[in-house]
Amino acid sequence: MADEENHFLKIEDVSTAFKIQGKYYPAVSDVSLDIHNDEIVAIVGESGCGKSTLATTIMGLHDPAETKIGGKIEFEDQDLLTLNEDQMNKIRGAKIGMIFQDPLSALNPLKRIGDQIQEGLDYHTKMTEAEKKARVLELVNQVGIPHPERVIRQFPHELSGGMRQRVVIAIAIACKPDLMIADEPTTALDVTIQAQILDLLKDIQKENHAGIILITHDLGVVAETADEVAVMYAGQVVEKGSAKQIFDNPLHPYTRSLLRSMPQKDSENDDLYVIEGSVPSLQKMPQDGCKFAPRIPWVPASEHEAHPTMHEVEPGHRVRCTCYKNFKFQDEA
Amino acid sequence: MWKTVLRRVLIMIPEIIILSILVFLLAKAMPGDPFTGSIGPHTSAAQIHHLKEAAGLYNPWYEQYWNWVVHLFHGNLGTSFQYQEPVTRIIGNRAINTLWLAVFAMVLTYAIGIPMGLYAGRNQNKIGDTIIRVYTFVTMSIPFFVILVLGLWIFGYVLGWFPTTGSVSATANSGMATTLSRLQHIVLPGLLAALFGTVNIVQYLRSEVIDAKGSDYVRTARSKGVPTGDVFRHHILRNSLLPIAAFAGYSITGLLGGSLYTEMVFSYPGMGLLFLNSISYRDYTVITALVLLYGILNLFGTLLSDIILSAVDPRVRIQ
Amino acid sequence: MSLIEVKDLEVHYPIRSGFWNRVTDEVLAVDGISLNIEAGETYGLVGESGSGKSTTGKSIVGLEKPTKGQIIYKGKDITKPSNRRELDYNQDVQMIFQDSLSSLNPRKRIEDIIAEPIRNFEHLDKNQEKLRVLQLLDIVGLDADALYKYPHQFSGGQRQRIGVARAVATNPKLIVADEPVSALDLSVQAQVLNFMKRIQRDFGISYLFISHDLGVVRHMCDNIAIMHRGRLVEIGTRDDIYNHPMHIYTKRLLSAIPETSVEGRAEARAHREAVEQEFQENQSRYYDKDGKVLPLVDVSATHKVALPEDEIEEEDK
Predict the structure, then answer these.
(1) Which GO terms describe its molecular function (chain C) (predicted)?
(2) What is the dihedral of CA B97, B101, B103, B105, to 10 degrees?
(3) Chain B residue numbers touching C22 (CB-CB < 8 A)
């Protein structure tokens, strides 16, 4: 399908560095990812791994005076990184929608729900006022908010957390974007609400034939929703593949460590696995070599690559660095 | 919303009663009584006693308070020792003068301060912002009276552009001439007061705008594809003006309260100067009246602020 | 005998409304719950936001005044302040909070933060006190150079461990841990949970582990109570709750936990939706006409469920 080829996002060697006291430190380095429509790509990692920075880089939300961005982000035959603010505004909200983590602070406290949902329509469509009103009601309905007529006249603080997150989703899908970026969309919510929101996202994705980039730290959420998974550590993708490949055959020591540190069904009598050391801060990040090496000090240096690259292990399944090949946990003989 | 306002107004009633009792007791505790000025060295103790008894000064305090309140409602606040004139008339004249100056200064303060603060916040760390910050910093670090005296000296004496004392020229007699003369008298003190008053607004507004720019809801608006200018107009502007609008309510205290420094340096016969003079002449009836007036003004100021806030911030409406 | 017995605990908050701001209604944050915590065990209290689980925890520590009910410790009701003082209750029961940054005083050094409870309850000289603090830091795996640092100089996981050290400082019998790891990353969470377990083994401390994360609760807790709308819907051992859940709300919660297996995804969603539908349809049977959770009924020696009568008969058959 030629149409499908058009609607996809190709991230190539993207790096984002922040200026701290006059020097640039990379929060994201050399990330390459493809996102097709009808596909949910999860980006997993712990806080500080650069997953949110990658999202805001795609959206072009960084202040150019404080950041240095390299690489290419191809979307519908253009490189997003070369577009100016006006050109980006035609894409943001219209073709790429974003869902943020904290639904309370993501909504303007002084504006009515309906107006906030309608705002995207104001800029990207030529609908009449009445058509927009109707579309807003349709959206509120679609995301499963009861009493749409009343809710659109309410203010954010009058809704519950779950309802606010639905409003944030309605804002993101208002113009039926081809791509949605959801940054920890369920972290602030209860488990039962989380399940509902994730199911809702999947349904919307099917209806709109959109692609979703799902950014999360929750491996359970990833296993339940993602088609493709990219695991990030210290600003780099260290492993990527289909969800099945990542969960059934995790290879990179970081992916394996993360999965191992999760509480399991019969883990109650054992200590949980703890990764040695801690995630380095932006300024103390190792500049070259395998960035995970300090966390697995028992692995000899010869196992690592000097300049780690991605290796295709099976079709679609790639791992960074060679240290995965003979990797064993310390307690494994 | 009207319910909130009405409840707020009802709460004010006991506040005003308590305030008036306090002011009354304060007046009682001060040395002297209404006859202090009129009693000569030859008045006998018996006569004084008689006068005081006739005036009800030996009655229990609550009866005296009640009398005082009744007089208050008739606009009778007593007679000034210093001017030998009804206090109401003195305050009335001064209040008009102060109102002229304060309204002028306040309008100027907001008219200069708000655009400056918004501009500085929007163009943070650019050259315009740096200039504004230097201006606020310098103005902040000079004491207000120094600014006034310098302004008076440069524009009043050296350049001679503006009158240096009083509120209206004695030679102006027609309506038009009086108004013009009045304006002429308030331009310099008003301008200098505004110059100083803007500093707070500029600094506050600047940091509000910078906070709003980094807020999550502005990020949401940008991710909807709203152009930068519209993000500023629709999201940042109202949200950052909110605290300023709420604070504006308190400014009415200043409208009638007058400014001690400005009125003193410019010998401008307003409320501030009146208060200062009454203190130095121990004109207790005037002091009492002014303290009561300031107290009530303050209460109304907070009321106004609350009303403004509940009108512009939906989160306050629900309680 | 249990370490602590909570009997018919109720915490109500007044709702003020109307023109005169009078108390017109009450929020039944905790609406009659009873539970026993045994010495040396970890008791899980699970519920969603607004279920009343944190309020229950705070009442047990004494930070919240119960409207009704008793909390029995060493045979005395500690909801009365005089009993609390007499038993040194505030020394025996400590709390760990979710947000480690805001619960540690930013202007105090770690030494003073950890020594504070010791100073309140014990009288040690400077050197003894320092030794004790170092010992506590060692228990939670922090170096001596932490002594002179401030809270913001630590990572979230380290701060949470400092919170644990502070709670352990008075040699408590019970620690109420309110969502102690929900703000932490996975690998850091593992570390904090390990330390909590180790301390329990070494010092015989009991935990009341309050959490919404059923995966973590399964790993940590021996006995578990599920809370909904201020009441308990089900109490049981780990096995009772996870393998034989009986209340519809417990089933709904369990079905919402994401599994880390990719194959079962479609079935998991189908199951979740089936349970959700059952919950919507049969809800009225499990709650009375005011939406209140039914009284608990004994199903086995360890397992209590708030079941409707017809369901109990079915069980008996």
Answers:
(1) ATP binding; ATP hydrolysis activity
(2) -170
(3) none
Q: Which of A161, A194, A273 sits opposite C190 (nearest CB)?
A: A273
Domains of chain A with bracketed CATH: 7-95+175-263+274-326 (3.40.50.300)
Q: Which of B216, B224, B242 sits opposite A102 (nearest CB)?
A: B216
CB of C257 within 8 Å of any CB in chain A?
Answer: yes
Report the residue of chain B nearest C20, measured CA to CA.
B7
Per-residue confidence at A38, pLDDT binned at 50, 70, 90? confident
Inter-chain contacts counted by CB atoms under 8 A, chains A and B = 83
Q: Select the residue of B220, B235, B312 nearest A100 (Cβ to Cβ).
A: B220
CA atoms A31, A34, A35, A40: torsion sign: negative
Where are the domains positioned within chain B?
Answer: 93-270+293-312
H-run or E-run covering C272: helix C265-286
- The model carries a pTM of 0.84
The number of C-alpha atoms within 13 Å of A104 and in the hemisphere containing its C-beta is 9
| CA count, 13 A, side-chain hemisphere, B313 | 17
- What residues of chain B lie within 8 A of the CB of C19, using their CB? 3, 6-7
Contact A108 B217 (CB under 8 A): yes
Structure tokens at A312: 């295709």
- Pairing mode of beta strands C206-211, C42-46: parallel
Residue of chain A whose alpha carbon sits nearest to that of B315: A157
Q: In CATH, what class is B93-270+293-312?
A: mainly alpha
**What was the ipTM of the complex prediction?**
0.87
Average pLDDT, chain C: 88
Q: Is A110 part of the contact surface with chain B (CB cutoff 8 Å)?
A: yes
A312 and chain C: CB distance < 8 Å anywhere? no
CB of B238 within 8 Å of a chain A CB? The answer is yes
Tokens 């990833």 appear where?
A222
Domain C2-247+286-314, CATH homologous superfamily name and number: P-loop containing nucleotide triphosphate hydrolases (3.40.50.300)
DSSP secondary structure letters along B67-93:
HHHHHHHTT---B-TTT-SBHHHHHHH
Domain range summary for chain C, segments of one domain joined by +: 2-247+286-314
Question: What digits encode the pLDDT tens for the residues A78-99?
Answer: 999 999 999 999 999 999 999 9
